[in-house]
């Protein structure tokens, strides 16, 4: 959380209190404890994109005669 506050302060030019409040609000409205995907779990959309890329690459390999 400290790193998140540092990043917010640097990128938005906020003071410590304002940056902490912004990070706290983000965490409070997030589905996960730290406001990002849990380790080892891809968000749903990203998982579908990865699957699509793998399928397209496999299809291209079959068509080209890999």
From TrEMBL:
GO cellular component: ribosome
GO function term, MF aspect, one: structural constituent of ribosome
Alphabetical UniProt keywords: Membrane, Ribonucleoprotein, Ribosomal protein, Transmembrane, Transmembrane helix
InterPro entries associated with the record: Ribosomal_bL12_C (IPR013823), Ribosomal_bL12_C/ClpS-like (IPR014719)
Residue ranges the record marks as coiled coil: none
Large ribosomal subunit protein bL12 C-terminal domain span: 2-25
One Pfam family it belongs to: Ribosomal_L12
Biological-process GO terms, alphabetical: translation
Transmembrane region(s): 45-64
Top-level taxon in the UniProt lineage: Bacteria
Name this polypeptide is given: Ribosomal protein L7/L12
């Amino acid at each position: 959380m400290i790193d998140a506050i540092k990043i917010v302060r640097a990128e938005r030019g906020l003071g410590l209190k304002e940056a902490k409040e912004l990070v706290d609000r983000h965490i409070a409205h997030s589905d996960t404890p730290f406001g990002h995907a849990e380790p080892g779990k891809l968000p749903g959309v990203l998982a579908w994109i990865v699957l699509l890329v793998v399928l397209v690459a496999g299809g291209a390999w079959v068509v080209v005669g890999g």
